[in-house]
Structure formats: C-alpha cells, structure tokens
Amino acid sequence: MKLARFLISREGFISVLCYTVTAVFSFLSFAPINLPFFVWFAPFGLFIIEKRNRGEWKKLIYHGFGFAILFYIVSFHWVYHMTTVFGGFDWYLAVPIFIVSAILLNFKFPVYLLIFSFLSIRVKRFFPLIASFAILFAEFFTPQVFPWYFGNVVAENQILAQNAEYTSAYGLSAFLFFVSYYLFYLRKPKQILRFLPFILSKHKNTTKRIVSGLALVIFILVLFFGNGYYLFQKWENVKPIAEREVLIVQPDAPLEFRDGRNPIEEIRKLMTRIDQMVERELKDNPVDLVVLPESGIPFFTTHDSEITRAMRIYWHQFESLMAIISLRHGANLYFNELDADIPGDKFSERIVRSDIRTYNSSVLMSPNGERKNSYQKVFLLIFGEYMPFEWMYALSGQTGQFAPGTKLDLIPYYETRKSTSQTTVPKDLHWEDTFVMSPNSVREHYKGNRIEEKMIGSFLPLICYEVIISEFVRKFEGDPDFIVNVTNDKWYGNSVESYQHHTLGRLRAIEFRKWIVRSTNSGTSVFTDHLGRNIDNDFTPIETTATIRKKVSVIPGEMTFYRLYGNLLSYLFMGIVGISFFVYVKRNP
C-alpha cells in the first residue's frame, strides 16, 4: 500500500519519470537502435533524483533499485524470455525472478547515488569530476552477470570509441558523466545567463574558478575527441600483413525438444543442412576458415575417448561429417562441442560418473581432417552453465553442469588447399555417407587431398559472453591474427539481446586492434574490424539459417596500452580524484 501511494503521488510520478529518462535514453542510444545523441542526457534522471534526495540515504537506495528495475524492463526485457524459455518457469515465477535479478545485478545504481550524494554534500559546490568518480566506482565494484557499462553506449560514436584502446568502456563512462553533469547544470537558460556576471565580476577568485572550469571542460572534450580522431586515422591507415577468407555458417540448430519434435530426426536434418550450406558456399570458392557457432551441433563431441563413450556424448557421425567438410574443401574448420575428462587424482580403471567433468568446448579440425587444438570455456555463465549451489540444479533442468577450462591458449590454424585441381578423389562424400563410413574411413577416402601441414597463424578463441569481459580477454597471451567469438543467443528469441551482446563485445576489437569474427547459432553473425566497425553493417537475420563470408585483415602485432596495463588509467583517475577530495575536505571542513 505504501508503494502504491508513493507511485500515485507527485513525488512518485517525478521519480518514475526520472527512471524512464535514464532507461529509455540509454536504450535509444544502444544497439540496435543506435541514436547516440540521447546518451548525453541519459544520466539526467540520476542527477535529478540525487539532487531531490541529497543526504537521504535510505531513499537513495530505494530509488537506485527503482532505476535498476525500470532499466531492466526497458533494455534487458529479454531476461524474462530467457527465464521462461530457457529456465522453463511459469510467468508467476518468472516475474519475481526478473525483478530480483534486476535488483541484485544492478547495484551500480544505488551505489552511484550514494557515493555521488555523499561527495556532493562534502564538496558543497559544483564539481563534475565527482560524477565521473562515482560512476567509475559503481561500475568497477558492483556485481553483474551480463556486464554492461554506460561507456559501451558512448562507444556507438566511432571517434569516441577509439579511446577504448587506453581506457576500455570504463573511461568512456567517466567521460559521459563528466560532460552530462555539465549539461545538466546548464539545463536552464537562467543558469547560462548567470555565468556572464561571474565572468565580468571584479572578484578575481570567482572569475578564476569559472574560467578554470570552462578550461577543464574544453580540455576534456579536446582530449577525448582529439585522441579518438588521431587513433582512428592511425589505425585506418595501417596496412594488413595478410588476409584470411572466413565463412560463418549459422545453422539455427534446435536446443531442446520439449515441443514434441523427434530429436533424432531434427539432428539429422541439422547435419544435412550444415553439409549443404557449406558445400553451396565452398564448392567453387574455397576459404581459409569455416566457423560454426556455439551449440551449432548440440549434445555431442568429436573427442573419442573412454570417458566420452561412457557418457554417450561421442558420436562418430559428428566426427565423420567434420572430417568430410574440412577434407572436401581443404579448409580449417572450427566448431563447438561437448568434451569431458576426469581429474588425474580421481582417475581409475573404473569410471565413476560423479568424477567426470564436462566442458563447453570448441575445437579446430585441420584441412587434413585431423582434430587439433581445443579450447574449453573458462568464464562460465552463472545460472546458464552452472549453479552456485548444488540444490539449485533442481530448479531448472536446462542449466548445464559444466566445469571451467584452465588454459588460455590461442588456436593455431593451417595453410589450406587453395585449388580443387589438387584433389584426386573420384567422389565427394556427404552427410549420408557417415552412416556407413567411420572417421578413419573418411580420412582414408580423402588421402589424395592431404597436403603438407603448415601452421600459418593463430586466433584468440572466446565462447559466448566471454567476449564482453575485457579483464578476462586480456589474460590470453600471444599475438592472435584475429578474435573468434562463437555464441548461441537462441534462448533469447527474436529480441535485441543478440545486438546488445555483440555491441558489448565490440570494444575488444579496439582494445586489441584485431578483427572479430562473431559466429552465432541463430543470429546475429557479423564481422567487426580493428576500428570497431561492423563490416558493411552486414548482420545475419535472427532465428533463421544463413551464411556470411568476408576477408579478415591480419593487423600487424602491437601490444596496445589496454593489453599491457588494463584499467590502470581508470584506477589512477579514481586515486587522484579521491586524494583531491580528501585534501579539499581537510582544508574546507
């Protein structure tokens, strides 16, 4: 009742309006709508709420959760779809789960309001750097399952986005709140007119403060836009040392069969579809690398071992088809699969199911049809690939029980067979041949297609939302030719999630100055260059089969500032502002 009375009051109406301004303006600025003009006014809702409730800590916490819930409703409404479709929960359970997740995973809003209000009370005057400090602190130190930052929205501006090479999204968040707070302060014409008397004032100290403030604004604007323009020109003119032709196959694979479909029949249709899609694209036009997405062929593995056979996840026809595709077209083939092992300290002659670890894995098959290096997903998605407590698995039968991988190695790839004249095989094989031919039989059939194995490069492998966690990606060592992100957004339906997922990960291209190959199961697949530009703005459609191919440029290796030092600049900024605040408060008690 108390909440209802508040919502119908004037105060409640203004509060909800403020929540809406921040949520809607951020959404309009973000993918796939991409109207970055609105982002500069998105923080206004936060500024108004803080000003109206300055020092009222309990109210600020409640308002912070109000921002969190409305922001989730507007921008992350697809979480509800995931809860009902992926989790299988009825609406009366999905709604409270959605609200609770919105509150728990958006602590940044109440934390921001509390810090900003505390600093504003102590400083007692207009000081926009504290707005930047507060958002940096809130984004750094609050938990998020699906990390997003206001800086990702700012990065829709191609020039400003280049600053991510030094600051990642965090620095862009700080820049946004610095500029936005100035705009907020000058939102009324009367505020602007008040500057004139101050500037013309005979009080030198007042005039000095105003001039210093304006100089700081101009300096920050020139710094970010100037540096962004310089980096854009610098990297646009860099000549690639090589080009690799890459084909993405989007098979729109089924993920579950609760609707009564025959699993065997659906998987056979999927394998036929993949076989035909690849052959149609590559029959007369070979590529260096074919990329299948996460869960492109679900439930199975090509890793033939005693453990995978005991778990009944090894499927010889899966391995046979992958070998056929790579040998038939003389190309590297990168695909997703399950994998499993047993820790060395628990391995014995008798396989105990409880000792088996299962992985979300991706592996490369060479042009000679040989299974090469694999990558097991390290950064697992909570509530999707594991539960924090054992008893929680009973809540959702769709949640996986994966173990995290332990290696952060690049995936080597090999020189391909460029000409069909090199082949001596009388008959090409297809999916239907796997019913009677083992993987070894396939390799024997194509022995005339084998070429000398020569490694020509490597790429950085990322599975699903690992791509949006900048601190994690920079842990990979070595200099990759490009980044490959395989993902599966099918659980989110025909929503904006797939575009948002890509946009959050797009900054990795700028931080590393490497192209990103994004391969999805059901859309949207896309190629992104080292400037963060989506090539030809060519996205595959959602919830359909598709193929897309481009020439990926291999940019000369260079350890960028962010790869070397991570978030050093953001930490320095928070430290300097924190020390300045402490000194100011000491001098002005």
UniProtKB/TrEMBL annotation:
Function: Catalyzes the phospholipid dependent N-acylation of the N-terminal cysteine of apolipoprotein, the last step in lipoprotein maturation.
Keyword ATP-binding: no
Source lineage: Bacteria, Pseudomonadati, Spirochaetota, Spirochaetia, Leptospirales
Name assigned to this protein: Apolipoprotein N-acyltransferase
Record field: transmembrane: 37-53, 60-80, 92-119, 126-146, 166-186, 210-232, 564-585
EC number: 2.3.1.269
Subcellular location: Cell membrane
Organism of origin: Leptospira yanagawae
A Pfam family annotated for this UniProt entry: LNT_N
